[in-house]
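Design a sequence for this backbone.
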């Protein structure tokens, strides 16, 4: 199992960013997926969850209404559209399974700052 996250960068407060996660080594279309984020010195936080079909999504209260998780099963790719970003959203973002996690990828750094 391998996850490769990309799309991070520096964004101003109120701006938008789209993260991508390319997955391999398993049947992507049959697994629920999640985005997580981690700030140095703090525990990794689950941000969003999407079922294998994409039919159901769940979000942490801190991002509800601003972030959208989606997936393209034909491309084994998971996305996180981040809108109206806030400085407290600065973190390294990762994708993984929502329950028993596999080995973590390198993540992608998102920095929200003016």
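Sequence:
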């Amino acid at each position: 199992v391998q996850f490769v996250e990309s799309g991070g960068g520096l964004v101003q407060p109120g701006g938008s960013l789209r993260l991508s996660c390319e997955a391999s080594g398993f049947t992507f279309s049959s697994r629920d997926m999640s985005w997580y984020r981690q700030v140095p010195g703090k525990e990794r936080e689950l941000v969003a969850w999407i079922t294998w079909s994409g039919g159901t999504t769940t979000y942490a209260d801190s991002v509800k209404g601003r972030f959208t998780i989606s997936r393209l099963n034909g491309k084994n790719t998971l996305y996180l559209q981040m809108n109206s970003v806030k400085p407290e959203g600065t973190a390294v973002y990762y994708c993984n399974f929502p329950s028993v996690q596999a080995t973590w990828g390198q993540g992608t750094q998102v920095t929200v700052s003016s």
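Residues 14 and 84 are 4 Å apart (CA to CA).
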